[in-house]
């Protein structure tokens, strides 16, 4: 790491303290005439290129990539919902819309197309095959096992999400070690691994939500640097109007925030549940903007933040909607899509008017899909409720086979969508500790993580009131934030905040602080090692490895729930 970031990490990355100045209310002054307390409050992570940090990041990402790509073409054939998404993806690549080649007509689908477009890119590159309809298409880049083609994009998305989490964690916690810990825990999560090796939509939703969050963290840093530069140039934040604000030029526009709007549009274009993160992330932006103004000394931080930032949030919302509609371009530019032409669906209230007609029909399509989702109450063997998800109460079996030669009378091969148990059973205690530490330290990181977890989980509790059929993979976009919660607590253990001195209690010595950090580091390292061992033990049922029935049964800890 650079010297600056090393010093930040060594001083306790999680416990970022705000110095309130001396007892008389004064504060020392840093460079540029800014009071030192203000400079500390506006500080961001060192943005200079850090070769060691990127080397560590590369190691973690390489581990994730190996786990996700090796043996990706197995098991053979379409497993679980690949039977829908792999076929729909090929229709999009071939005809621009989801198409049923068996019935020779448009398919009625209830999820937006972006995730299937991405799956289809893998099929275009590496080939596609469907024995049911006698379709066999070679890849444009190279021809491989067809399963590799439709699972390729998911593996890429899973690997990229690990990369993003490392960099987001490093920036938030100001520690390369903690950032890499976050990425490694995600890489060693069985739930994330299974979704990264299967042609389902949820891994793409996870990727875009996490990328949008990362863009907002970068936006937060950029805005704080903007205020720091303005204060160094002599800005008086107590002055009313534009005179008390940093200059507004196109270079100072919140480009990262606008990118977050595009990425959230992509998330919603994979699954509509990406919408749950839109108000949560908008609230984060407002809270962070209020915080930077309060730190800078603005007299009315709430009023000024709302007046200054709401137009940018509205523009980000416009980009979100525009991005979402753009992902439907195949449907809009084709006459073959379901509900596309009124003449083919009489009585559906569609329109064939130019320009406006396609948008009206698209809205009607969305109404029909929404009715399907809200009325989905059909029982399913692997359905589960939100309060079961973090406890691994009902994982989903993606694949099962009792065939093969394993050297025993009975064999088993299964792919079970199961989180690494030790990691997942740490989530609830970590959330409780995160809430406590966040309140005690008034730490923006804790609030951001908790709000993101809430956006990913709490809406499903509402739908549970209507007995909607749900599955554990709905929790996918919340998983990176749950991992961040665990890493936050590990950081608090490994780099504890120094105890405050008082008239009767002297401050801890440097040796005491060093000893506490050594013990904390050992505890955190031991936890990561145990998670890795737990992952290795369950790895065979994450990838469908053939084993004896006895070995398989030994990994099914909750017999009534995990079968």
Annotation, overall tally of beta strands:
7
Element order: H for helix, E for strand: HHHHEEHEEHHHHHHHHHHEEHHHHHEHH
Order of strands, main sheet, comes to: 5-6-7
Sheet with most strands: 3 strands, antiparallel
Write down the Rg.
Answer: 26 Å
Give the N-terminus to C-terminus distance in angstroms.
Answer: 46 Å
Low-confidence runs = 1-31
H/I helix tally:
22
Mean pLDDT: 89
Q: Which structural class is indicated by helix and strand composition?
A: mainly alpha
Quick one: overall form?
globular
| Range of strand content | under 5%
Residues in helices, as a percent range: 55-70%
Descriptive report:
With 563 residues, this protein is mostly helical. It contains 22 helices and seven strands. It has helices at 3-10, 36-41, 51-69, 82-95, 114-126, 146-173, 176-187, 190-196, 202-232, 255-268, 277-296, 301-326, 329-332, 356-374, 386-389, 421-424, 427-441, 444-464, 479-494, 510-543, 549-554, 559-562, and strands spanning 99-100, 105-106, 128-130, 135-137, 396-401, 411-417, 547-548. The strands form three sheets. Strands 5-6-7 form a three-stranded antiparallel sheet. A two-stranded antiparallel ribbon has the order 1-2. A hairpin with a 4-residue loop joins strand 3 and strand 4 (135-137). Helix 3 (51-69) runs antiparallel to helix 6 (146-173), helix 3 packs parallel to helix 7 and helix 17 (427-441) crosses helix 19. It is globular. The two termini are 46 Å apart. Mean pLDDT is 89; it is low at 1-31.
């Amino acid at each position: 790491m650079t010297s600056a970031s090393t010093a930040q990490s060594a001083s306790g990355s999680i416990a970022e303290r705000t110095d309130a100045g001396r007892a008389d209310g004064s504060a020392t002054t840093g460079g540029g005439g800014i009071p030192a307390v203000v400079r500390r409050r506006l500080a961001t992570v060192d943005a200079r290129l850090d070769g060691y940090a990127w080397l560590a990041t590369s190691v973690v990402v390489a581990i994730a990539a190996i786990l996700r790509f090796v043996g990706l073409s197995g098991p053979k054939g379409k497993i679980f919902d690949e039977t829908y998404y792999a076929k729909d993806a090929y229709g999009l690549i071939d005809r621009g819309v989801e198409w049923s080649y068996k019935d020779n007509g448009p398919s009625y689908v209830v999820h937006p197309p972006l995730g299937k477009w991405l799956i289809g890119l893998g099929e275009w590159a590496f080939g596609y095959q469907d024995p049911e309809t006698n379709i066999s298409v070679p890849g444009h880049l190279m021809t491989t096992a067809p399963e590799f083609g439709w699972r390729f994009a998911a593996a890429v998305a899973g690997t990229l999400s690990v990369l993003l989490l490392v960099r987001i964690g490093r920036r938030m916690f100001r520690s390369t070690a903690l950032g890499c810990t976050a990425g490694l825990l995600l890489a060693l999560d069985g739930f994330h691994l299974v979704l990264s090796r299967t042609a389902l939509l949820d891994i793409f939703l996870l990727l875009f939500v996490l990328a949008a969050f990362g863009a907002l963290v970068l936006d937060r840093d950029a805005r704080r640097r903007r205020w720091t530069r303005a204060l160094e140039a002599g800005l008086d934040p107590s002055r009313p109007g534009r005179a008390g604000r940093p200059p507004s030029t196109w270079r100072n526009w919140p480009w990262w925030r606008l990118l977050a709007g595009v990425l959230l549009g992509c998330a919603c274009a994979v699954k509509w549940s990406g919408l749950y993160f839109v108000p949560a992330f908008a609230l984060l932006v407002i809270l962070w903007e209020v915080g930077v103004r309060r730190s800078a000394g603005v007299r009315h931080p709430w009023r000024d933040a709302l007046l200054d930032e709401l137009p940018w949030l509205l523009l980000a919302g416009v980009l979100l909607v525009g991005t979402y509609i753009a992902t439907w371009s195949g449907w809009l530019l084709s006459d073959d899509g379901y509900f596309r032409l009124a003449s083919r669906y009489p009585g559906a209230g569609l329109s064939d008017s130019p320009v406006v007609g396609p948008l009206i029909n698209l809205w009607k399509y969305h109404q029909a899909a929404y009715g399907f989702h809200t009325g989905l109450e059909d029982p399913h063997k692997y359905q589960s409720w939100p309060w079961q998800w973090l406890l691994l109460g009902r994982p989903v079996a993606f694949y099962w086979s009792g065939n093969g030669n394993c050297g025993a009378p009975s064999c088993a091969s299964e792919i079970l969508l199961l989180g690494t148990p030790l990691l997942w059973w740490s989530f609830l205690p970590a959330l409780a500790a995160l809430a406590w530490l966040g309140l005690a330290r008034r730490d923006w990181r804790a609030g951001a993580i908790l709000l993101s977890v809430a956006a990913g989980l709490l809406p499903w509790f509402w739908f549970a009131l209507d007995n909607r059929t749900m599955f554990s993979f709905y929790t996918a976009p919340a998983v990176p934030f749950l991992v961040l919660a665990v890493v936050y607590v590990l950081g608090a253990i490994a780099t504890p905040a120094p105890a405050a001195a008082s008239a009767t209690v002297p401050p801890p010595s440097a040796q005491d602080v060093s000893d506490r950090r050594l013990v904390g580091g050992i505890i955190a390292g031991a936890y990561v090692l145990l998670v890795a061992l737990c992952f290795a033990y369950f790895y065979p049922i994450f990838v469908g490895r053939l084993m004896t029935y006895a070995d398989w049964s030994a990994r099914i800890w909750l017999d009534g729930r995990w079968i």
